[in-house]
Amino acid sequence: MEIEIKFRLLDKLQYQKLIQFLGGKPIQKHFQNNFYLTDNLDLLKKNKGALRFRFWDEKCLITLKAGHTIKDGIGTCEEIEDFVDLKEANNFMNNLRNSKEFQKIPKLFDNLKVFQRIQKDFPEITGWKLLGNFSNVRKVFNWKNNLHIEVDKTKYDFGIGYELELEIQGVEKNEERDKIKEDLINDLKRNEILFQPTKSTKLANFINKKID
């Protein structure tokens, strides 16, 4: 189960102020291209799921998200992930981009945990189409207590979104998670960084053409 604190930064200035507060130089920086797929029966969407192919650093990671919810700046979802051969993933994306028909997954993907789970939960699914794609730059910073803050600049065709994410699924007790969230909020307020709890996933922003 993935559990994240998710705050939307209100504009580019807040994004810059946050990066400055975190020291300016990230420990990691990734340029990510995200492609989302939809199935022939729209079953993933109806069950609050999503299938994403993410390309970065000459790699491709397929992620199945299930039961995604966001409340009060806390996002939770079940995630299943598989790294796949980059050439095969690119070929599949090209097939999806060049076709108006639903496509079967490559045979090479049959043994992946992601598609085994989909076959188990939704055996009716027989094909896939490209729902859409967007890109983002992710900068990763050390924060405190060995926790990492990820700062995202996401480019949609209708605008740019700025967001911070902090994974806390490794923190077992709810009161400890609440304390981490409180400490983060206090740091943002002390540094006059304007933010609000994220209300929607990046995919929902993309579909609704509205950044929440």
Corresponding CATH superfamily:
Hypothetical Protein Pfu-838710-001
Number of helices: 6
Described by strand count, sense and barrel closure, the largest sheet is: 8 strands, antiparallel, barrel
In sequence order, what are the helices and strands, one letter per element? EHEHEEEHHEEEHEH
What would you call the structural class? alpha+beta
CATH architectural grouping? Beta Barrel
CATH class category: Mainly Beta
CATH fold name, please?
Hypothetical Protein Pfu-838710-001
Give the domain tally: 1
Description of the structure:
With 212 residues, this protein is of the alpha+beta class. It has a single domain, classed as Hypothetical Protein Pfu-838710-001 (Beta Barrel), CATH 2.40.320. It contains six helices and nine strands. Strands 1-5-4-3-2-6-7-8 form an eight-stranded antiparallel barrel, surrounded by four helices. β4 and β5 form a beta hairpin. The model has no long low-confidence stretch (mean pLDDT 95).
Layout of strands and helices, then pairs:
Elements: E1 2-9, H1 12-21, E2 28-39, H2 43-46, E3 50-56, E4 59-71, E5 74-83, H3 86-97, H4 113-121, E6 128-142, E7 148-156, E8 159-167, H5 174-190, E9 195-197, H6 202-208
Antiparallel strand pairs: 1-5, 1-8, 1-9, 2-3, 2-6, 3-4, 4-5, 6-7, 7-8
InterPro entries: CYTH-like_dom_sf, CYTH_domain
Domain CYTH: 1-210
GO molecular function: pyrophosphatase activity
How do you describe this structure in short?
The protein has 212 residues and is of the alpha+beta class.
